[in-house]
Amino acid sequence: MLGKLRGLFAKDLAIDLGTANTLIFMRGKGIILNEPSVVAINKVDGRVIAVGKAAKAMYGKTPETIEAIRPMKDGVIADFDITKKMISYFIRKVLSGTNLFPPKVIVCVPSGITQVEKKAVIDSSIQSGARKVHLIEEPMAAAIGSKLPIHEARGSMVIDIGGGTTEVAVLSLSATAYSESTRVAGDEMDEAIMQHIRRILNIQIGPFEAERVKMEIGSASPLRQRLQTQVRGRDLIRGVPVSFSVDDSFIRQALNEPVKAIVESTRRALEKTSPELSADITERGIVLAGGGALLKGLGPRLHQETGLPIFRAKDPLTAIVRGTGEVLENFKTLGKVCIN
What does the entry list as the binding residues for ATP (predicted)? Predict the structure, then answer.
């Protein structure tokens, strides 16, 4: 009887605990939260000042007593205590009010996650109020969210480019035939832009300014039309604030190394895949998911390098949490894809 009541009233959740953003899907309601994975704390007493969008707005602008922290690094927990506070805040926010039964939670994790990192995710979720925690690898969730036939005896290939990791995986029969997790993704691209501007122009810019530039004019291959944007930073020689203009070719040069790393990871996956699965991938192509899939010209660059058809998932930013949500909604049939 208790089990039936729990099934009726528990507000079970699917969480994409990303390096850059955290997304939450509630059973029966869909995606109900999409916030930056940032926490602002008081350094004196450890009190949480802000979480999510409000904390991101403070990043780099706080007094000495307040620090804005990104507790996730390379797709996994870098600061356990801060991550626990962040998850607790988000769970309380989405449950908002009395929740008779603690929720069952499914959390996305990188395919290269260690046992220690798995335990950290599970423990932080349980301490944040979860009744039970299941883990699903991000490429599997991305494939389900992209409507790929992962249950069939056919190869499906997914490249999930998040904030901290790029996951390349070949899936078949509801399992992973090959996967590789490379810690080169959106954050590395932002860092590459910051370093390139510093090295060439002697100007320092912040990570969120680099992210904006990447999203506006960043590209992996030449564009049909030249793009430009204004950038704000600090002149390292004179020490004064400056505003300057850069174009897409300058930023493409900055992004060359991280893009090459993603291409090489894709090539390795193709080299290590069986001939039978390779034949399926040749026929059906590769699906791109995650925020990095929005990088202009990435599909054409990967097509040029591999000769394979490249497709972008519908709304790649939410493909993972939508796939995790589908597992949550249909746990009896899809629960076998979870890794714990």
Answer: 19-21, 163-165, 211-214, 291-294
Residues 6+ apart with CB under 8 A from 307: none
- Does 164 belong to an annotated binding site? yes
- E strand map for 183-266: 203-204, 228-235, 241-247
Whether the per-residue pLDDT at 7 is higher than 60: the answer is: no
Q: Was 293 annotated as part of a binding site? A: yes
Q: Does 202 score more than 60 pLDDT?
A: yes
Cα separation, 143 vs 263, in Å, equals 19
Is 307 assigned to a binding site?
A: no
211 annotated binding-site participant? yes
- Where do the domains of the chain lie? 2-38+72-140+320-337, 149-184+257-313, 187-254
291 is in an annotated binding site: yes
| Spatial separation of the C-alpha atoms in residues 293 and 62, rounded to whole Å | 32
Fold category of 2-38+72-140+320-337 in CATH: Nucleotidyltransferase; domain 5 (3.30.420)
Q: Is 218 annotated as a binding residue?
A: no
For residue 206, say whether it is annotated as part of any ligand binding site: no
| Mean pLDDT value across residues 307-323 | 95
Q: What is the pLDDT of residues 101-157, one digit of tens each?
A: 789 999 998 887 889 888 888 988 898 888 999 999 999 999 999 999 999 999 999
- Average pLDDT along the chain: 92
Helix (H) or strand (E) holding 288: strand 286-289
137 a known binding residue?
A: no
Does 130 carry a binding-site annotation?
no
Overall pTM surpassing 0.70 (yes/no) = yes
